[in-house]
Amino acid sequence: MKTAFFDSGIGGLSVLHHAMKILPNEEFIFFADEDNVPYGTKTREQILNYVDKAFKFLVGQNVDAIVVACNTATSAAVRIMREKYSLPIIGMEPALKRALDLFPKKKVLVVATEATVKGEKIKNLVEKLNAENFAELHALQKLVDFAERQEFNSDAVENYLHEELSGYDFKNFSSIVLGCTHFNYFKDTLKKILPTHIKILDGNSGTVNRLIELADLKIDSAEKNFPHVEYFYSGRRVNSPNELQRLEKYLKRLDEMYLL
After folding, report:
1. Which one of 49, 214, 218, 241 is least enclosed by Cβ atoms within 10 Å?
2. What is the mean pLDDT of the chain?
3. Which one is catalytic: 58, 180, 190, 217?
4. Where are the beta strands (DSSP E) in 74-127?
5. How far apart are CA 13 and CA 116, in angstroms?
6. Is the peptide bond before 38 cis (omega within 30 degrees of 0)?
7. Confidence bin at 218 (pLDDT 50/70/90)
8. pLDDT at 216
9. Residue 104 is a catalytic residue
10. How many other C-beta atoms lie within 10 A of the C-beta of residue 210?
């Protein structure tokens, strides 16, 4: 089975990375819309246009399912893509329910892009979970830019996170939910600046589990095979040794973050 993982940029690689760990016998395509990243600062109409072009390309690659490994694109476009295409389409959802299930009656900070924080989908999720008194939303848009240039734990990153998060009294919070796949590269820096009781949660495993359920795939985390992956930037196959090395650096970073 061939599954595509699509993101505005390099963040969705973290979702693919999890899939590669537990589905080593599958075939994957990773599509990063590097020409248009970031999506978080774009209008809904722009995002819809970008996603539509990406889907046309991926369907042309004869994929069997598409994982929209981008919270912003999921919020803006997944419903419309599901109406347009018949293949399984799996979107991202911030792990707010998981946080509330793990820590009932405790506050949760959901961090995401500007577009996700302002979008109807996250507001509907909060209402659906009756979490109006427990969920706080905060945009950390600059983390996308830091991730795209592989700046993960510099002084600039740490200072930015300190500045953005200093207004929260974390004694009242149980966890922080990463509502953007780009944010998974910063788990160590977040751990460094957040109180030790704060748990860092993301939606990667839930998204891949949904893929497994819809596509009837078999988990085999003990298998030592490496899945076949093709990489594309905005429809262009990645063949350059420099770019392949860049992607490998991201995957090594994700190996480190995977254990946190």
Report:
1. 241
2. 95
3. 180
4. 89-90, 107-112
5. 19
6. yes
7. confident
8. 87
9. no
10. 17
C-alpha 233/C-alpha 200 separation (Å) is 29
Note the residue count of the chain.
Answer: 260
Say yes or no to pLDDT of 224 above 90. no
Is 180 noted as a catalytic residue in this protein? Answer: yes
CB 128 within 8 A of CB 100: no
Residue matched to tokens 């690659």: 61
Nearest-5° Cα angle at 240, 238 to 241 = 120
Based on its alpha-carbon atoms, the radius of gyration of the chain, rounded to whole angstroms, reads 17
Q: Does domain 2-92+205-258 have CATH number 3.40.50.620?
A: no
Residue whose tokens read 């600039």: 156
pLDDT given for residue 223 in this prediction: 65
Report d(CA 58, CA 72) in Å as an integer.
19
- Cβ-contact 233, 54 below 8 angstroms: no
**Tokens 């650096």 found at:** 249
**What are the residues facing 177 on neighbouring strands?**
110, 201
Residue owning tokens 């970008």:
50
pTM listed for this prediction = 0.93
Residues of the chain with CATH 3.40.50.1860: 2-92+205-258, 96-202
pLDDT value of residue 48? 97
d(CA 67, CA 80): 14
For residue range 232-242, what is the model confidence (pLDDT) as tens digits?
999 999 999 99
CATH topology for 96-202 is Rossmann fold (3.40.50)
Burial of 215 (0-12, 13-18, 19+ CB in 10 A): middle
Number of H helices, E strands in the chain: 11, 10
Catalytic residue chosen out of the listed positions 10, 19, 47, 70: 70
